[in-house]
Design a protein that fits this description.
binds S-adenosylmethionine, alpha/beta
Length: about 230
């Protein structure tokens, strides 16, 4: 794990000072994963590359120096917790509907002394009533297809902010299908970039949606409706 991080962080333009905290997080993840379903990736070197470095690739693509970010459907903390560890001036909300996962994240933050992450149990479509259009960034990985994901994430982003959707490559059709949702919800696709996760040959993609106008009040709809009739 350490070798992967020692090679991967500089490749992303990041300092290696965060390695002890990232390693401790990964250890807690693998330990807890024995009794709770947190991740299908169980080799430490794979956790380092496919979870930690993949999450941190967002920094090399989008900066995320400071301001506020919400990670929608963070699960075991990806990408939001590695971002919070490496970017202490970024205020991160780790949002997930599953209480057990959020409980695990609270423990990790307490153990590591991470004070710039808030762990919230809730559904994104309900959280929008509380934190509508306040975040500088929304980020999300592996939660839903892009049309639905836009409806979960864009209402949380302020006008002038950005939603970063982490996707696999070969998602042209999905991105095309999301065109209507992006527009209706007040967004505009700013850029799409592919990147190779350092130390691997895995290519992933980030779709960056800029919030250019307010989201109409009737969105987000209830989850069942979003799934049944995506925008
Ligand atoms: N983002 C993490 C990752 O990439 O490892 C977790 C991905 S996991 C496949 C999807 C997560 O999204 C689950 O933890 C699930 O509970 C959460 N989720 C799904 N729909 C959600 C919603 N509407 N609001 C909040 N969390 C949601």
């Amino acid at each position: 794990m350490r070798q992967v991080l020692e090679a991967g962080l500089p490749a992303l333009g990041l300092d290696t000072a965060a390695i002890p905290a990232l390693e401790r997080f990964a250890e807690m993840l693998l330990q807890r994963n024995r009794v709770m379903n947190l991740t299908a990736i169980t080799e430490p070197r794979d956790v380092a590359a496919l979870h930690l470095l993949d999450s941190l690739a967002l920094i090399s693509l989008a900066g995320l120096e400071d301001g506020s970010a919400v990670d929608v459907g963070t699960g075991a903390g990806f990408p939001g917790l590695p971002l919070a560890i490496v970017r202490p001036r970024l205020q991160v909300t780790l949002l997930d509907s599953l209480g057990k996962r959020v409980g695990f994240l609270r423990e990790v933050c307490e153990t590591l002394g991470v004070t710039n992450a808030e762990c919230v149990q809730g559904r994104a479509e309900e959280f929008a009533a509380e934190r509508r259009e306040v975040y500088d960034w929304a980020v999300s990985r592996a939660v839903a297809a892009l049309p639905v994901l836009c409806e979960l994430c864009l209402p949380l982003v302020r006008v002038g902010g950005y939603f970063l959707a982490m996707k696999s490559s070969h998602t042209e059709a999905e991105i095309e299908q999301a065109g209507g949702a992006v527009r209706i919800l007040g967004g505009r696709i700013a850029w799409i970039r592919d990147y190779t996760i350092p130390t691997t040959e895995v290519v992933h993609r980030v779709v960056c949606v800029e919030k250019v106008a307010g989201t109409p009040k009737k969105y987000p709809r209830r989850f069942a409706q979003m799934k049944k009739t995506p925008l």
